[in-house]
């Protein structure tokens, strides 16, 4: 069907719609509030390049607050998909656990095209993940490497309990050094939730150390102040993403 003479291109109409919703949100007209706005545009290179690593971390903290308060941005994922189809400019790369309860993009309230995401049980690093992170930062311009562990981590508990199962055995062996390094007063077993969480936190810290040790590319970018490598713990109870100093 041919386009009517007065019909606007879809992208322009979408931007106008988003702008109109923003005005309604600020004025309170028609019952709109800020969380009702549909965020259609994907992150642009200009937007990403203006942000510092600290800006990006701050935006993650704000996004997590929205998640906890139930005031998440209502992303128009179809529009974001279309806007990012010809290029992507993510601000960060996130290494998190495969746990179904800990999807980093949702916990931080980010949209399509905003973050690279790597997920593996126990959020451990390996050569393939390091290569992916190097691509994300050195080639694609991401400015933050975020390692996210979480409470009640089954992989960490499995490592503590010496679980053995096919290829999982080797993966859990990479978590085990965090067990010995964790200072903890009390029962040091997988039955003690507090100990499991303490080891999970140590595991995040050790993963960050391993990233710096095993990737000269990322270490150099961090030393030059171009990126920040930071850790965090997601608390299943309450939903807070705690950023580690």
Helix and strand pattern: HEHHEHEHEHEHHHHHEE
The general outline is globular
Question: Largest sheet, order of strands side by side?
Answer: 4-3-5-6-7
Could you give a short account of the major beta sheet? 5 strands, mixed
- Care to count the β-strands? 7
How far is the first residue's CA from the last residue's CA? 58 Å
Helix content: 40-55%
- The unreliable regions are 1-38
Number of helices: 11
Gyration radius over CA? 21 Å
Q: What is the averaged pLDDT score?
A: 86
Tell me the structural class: alpha/beta
Note the beta-strand portion.
5-15%
Structure description:
The protein has 245 residues and is of the alpha/beta class. Helices cover 47% and strands 13% of the residues. The protein contains 11 helices and 7 strands. The longest helix is centred in the C-terminal third of the chain and has 22 residues. The radius of gyration is 21 Å and the shape is globular. The N and C termini lie far apart (58 Å). The N terminus is likely disordered.
């Amino acid at each position: 069907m041919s386009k009517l003479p007065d019909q606007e291109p879809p992208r322009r109409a979408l931007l106008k719609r988003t702008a109109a919703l923003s005005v309604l949100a600020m004025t309170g007209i028609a019952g709109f509030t800020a969380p009702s706005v549909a965020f259609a545009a994907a992150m642009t290179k200009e937007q990403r390049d203006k942000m510092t690593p600290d800006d990006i971390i701050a935006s993650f903290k704000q996004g997590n607050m929205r998640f906890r308060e139930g005031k998440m941005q209502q992303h128009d994922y179809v529009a974001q998909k279309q806007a990012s189809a010809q290029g992507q400019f993510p601000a960060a790369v996130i290494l998190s656990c495969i746990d179904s309860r800990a999807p980093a993009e949702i916990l931080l309230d980010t949209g399509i095209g905003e973050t690279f995401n790597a997920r593996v049980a126990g959020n451990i690093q390996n050569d393939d993940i390091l290569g992916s992170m190097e691509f994300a930062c050195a080639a694609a311009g991401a400015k933050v490497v975020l390692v996210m562990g979480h409470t009640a981590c089954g992989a960490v508990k499995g490592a503590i309990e010496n679980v053995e199962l096919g290829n999982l055995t080797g993966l859990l062996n990479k978590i085990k050094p965090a067990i010995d390094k964790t200072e903890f007063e009390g029962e040091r077993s997988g039955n003690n939730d507090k100990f499991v969480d303490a080891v999970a936190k140590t595991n995040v810290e050790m993963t960050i150390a391993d990233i710096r040790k095993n990737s000269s590319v990322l270490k150099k970018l961090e030393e030059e102040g171009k990126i920040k490598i930071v850790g965090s713990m997601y608390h299943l109870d309450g939903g807070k993403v705690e950023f580690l100093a």
